[in-house]
């Protein structure tokens, strides 16, 4: 430090071009990220869902995806104890669960 200004060390100055190139590479990778093209995708999606949601909801998804994205596949996983952790760790792509909300006075709530 000279007076009241920061001055890069010789090592920092030597690293500057490599750091600049690395940051540019990261920036270009993020900017040029290709969105999903359903018609050409062969991606496999891992989905955690309940048996009920598989029967009631998922059949319609499969039919639509088969039409619009024939190369896409699914791996269906049963509900885990902490599904939010699976999502956070990237072990699943989607969580599809049904939450039941009812009054505590409802006969089924007992």
Structural account:
The chain has 110 residues and is of the alpha/beta class. It has a domain at 44-109: Periplasmic binding protein-like II (D-Maltodextrin-Binding Protein, domain 2, 3-Layer(aba) Sandwich), CATH 3.40.190. It has three helices and three strands; from the N terminus they run H-E-H-E-H-E. It has helices spanning 10-31, 51-68, 83-88; strands at 44-49, 73-77, 94-96. It has a three-stranded parallel beta sheet. The protein is elongated, with a radius of gyration of 25 Å. The protein starts with 9 loop residues before the first helix and ends in a 14-residue tail after the last strand.
Strand content: 5-15%
CATH architectural designation of the domain at 44-109: 3-Layer(aba) Sandwich
Helix content: 40-55%
**Average of per-residue pLDDT values:** 83
Entry summary:
The protein has 110 residues and is an alpha/beta fold.
List the topology elements.
Layout: H1 10-31, E1 44-49, H2 51-68, E2 73-77, H3 83-88, E3 94-96
Parallel strand pairs: 1-2, 1-3
Which keywords apply here?
single chain, 110 residues, alpha/beta, 3 helices
